[in-house]
Amino acid sequence: MTAKIITVFNQKGGVGKTTTCMQLAGTLGRRGRSVQVFDMDPQGTATQWAAAAEEGKPFPAKVQAMSQFKGKIHNEVQKYAEDCEFLIIDCPPALDSPVARSALTIADLALIPIAPRPADLLSSSAAKDLAREAQLVNRDLRVLAVATFVERNSTMREILKGLKADEDVPLAKAVLSKRLAFSDSVAYGITVHDVPDAAKAIEEIEALAAEVLQLLSERAEREAA
Predict the structure, then answer these.
(1) How are strands ordered across the β-sheet holding 176-177?
(2) Is the pTM of this model over 0.90?
(3) Looking at per-residue confidence, does 65 or 13 come out higher?
(4) How confident is the model at residue 221 (pLDDT cuts 50, 70, 90)?
(5) pLDDT digits over 48-92, tens only?
(6) Residue 60 CB: number of other CB atoms within 10 A?
(7) CATH number for the domain formed by residue range(s) 4-224
(8) Nearest-CA neighbor of 109 among 7, 222, 3?
(9) What separation in angstroms does the CA of 165 have from each of 8, 46, 145, 159, 169?
(10) Are the C-beta atoms of 65 and 123 separated by less than 8 Å?
(11) How far is CA 99 from CA 58, 74, 200, 209, in A?
(12) Among 90-94, 125-129, 193-197, which range has the highest average pLDDT?
């Protein structure tokens, strides 16, 4: 078994990077897939999230703090490639960090969470440039932007149209809306699946998981051809 590697990154904080990483990892885990998350953020949000789980009900994916490896994370991650189906790297939000560059060299798929707010859209251009640069080395790398903290109003709809127009970095069909269920999950070490009255949030993260699995399946088919 050789794991599929997913790098979740953006050079700006507050865009839902760890939320996307942990909700996706937990969703895949709940589907019976073996998942390992590498928490590369020195703040350790993903690690704390998993640690908050109730005793006897662990978070449905393994989470390990690995920020000490910094730009050498590509070497460390590959040591786990035969033990899990999915390895997901949660990168720190820093322009000067070497982590994302290292993680992208070995990734099958890169996810760029983008909150559709003007300031976040401007800052996301650096992440997209880094992804395109990584594709010069990792030619099979797929890159997908994920709209997060989406509010259903006319302004947001116009901004989403702009995101969809980027041909180099396509926008996921699935979106993660601004919902309390996503933030409430952190305090209890769970995914939205265990948050009461979170049907819409569950639907959104399940849709993203399905889209990610489809992209990775397409890549596997191309490699086998």
Answers:
(1) 62-65, 35-39, 86-90, 4-8, 109-114, 142-150, 176-177
(2) yes
(3) 65
(4) low
(5) 999 999 999 999 999 999 999 999 999 999 899 999 999 999 999
(6) 22
(7) 3.40.50.300
(8) 7
(9) 21, 32, 12, 10, 9
(10) no
(11) 27, 9, 33, 24
(12) 193-197
Q: Which of the pair, 125 or 130, is modelled with greater confidence?
A: 130
Strands 35-39 and 62-65: parallel
Distance CA 71, CA 51 (A): 25
